[in-house]
Specification:
Alpha-Beta Plaits; 15 strands; 288 residues; alpha/beta; 32% strand; five-stranded mixed sheet; D-Maltodextrin-Binding Protein, domain 2
Length: 288
Amino acid sequence: MEVLKIIIGFLGPNGTFTEEAMEVWMKKLGFTPEQYKKVAFFSIEDMMHEVGKSLDAAVVPVENSLEGSVNITVDSFIRGVDAMIKGEVILPITQHLLLKNIIPLSEIKEVLSHPQALYQCRGFLKENVPNARLKEVSSTAEAAKLVAESNNNIAAIGSKALSKIYGLKIAVESIQDSNNNMTRFYILSTQDEMVTGRDKTALIFSTENKPGSLFRSLKIFAEKGLNLTKIESRPSRRILGEYVFLIEVEGHRLQEPLKTALKELKLTASMFKILGSYPIFDLNELKR
């Protein structure tokens, strides 16, 4: 009898950092590759909407230490994705310049990659290939695939794994602008995680567009000694100047004092949605 596999989505094609994060997560849970089926998507929002339908889980990038948030992930929650955050994975990101065959950098006419990867390497690109056209594509893996199918004066930015998958040469290693280049990923499912004792909770909310409204909302957490680890605003898309806020706070939504703080915030917020509680990722897990 065939064992039922967990079906998990990732931003494809094969070889992306999102796929690597997915493999780190599944290994952490004790699953072997034979025990889950991975499905590549080319749209983060489409994938998020499939959680609980064709997918049991999905992995999406949420922020990079050099370039900040992945807005499409945050906006998809705001636009009504029902998936919940069950976990997170943080990966060190090393970007390489990939070519079909090694040529002088001055002969490169175009550099392809995911927008975040291009931004992470803009210092290198400005200094070494200032005249090359920068072209955004859906993923680093898509860039590598296109370079493998192209003429020899087009380069991609991506991982060492991509060079092996698509038969490319590494022209220059470690071209990101900082060695402290990390990307954080959310693990999405139909439910979040139970209390572990070392948790974070993510939520989105909006307030009235009046003086002091945001201050009064955040004051709820400060008064209870709760540490906010992330706060950002995104346009509501209804009225210019109206925003939805994403925050992450230490603690689990089912435990005090966060449980009471969330109840108080819900009473004052014009829009309120808990995205999930999940264990804080331990970077030491990457060394195991």
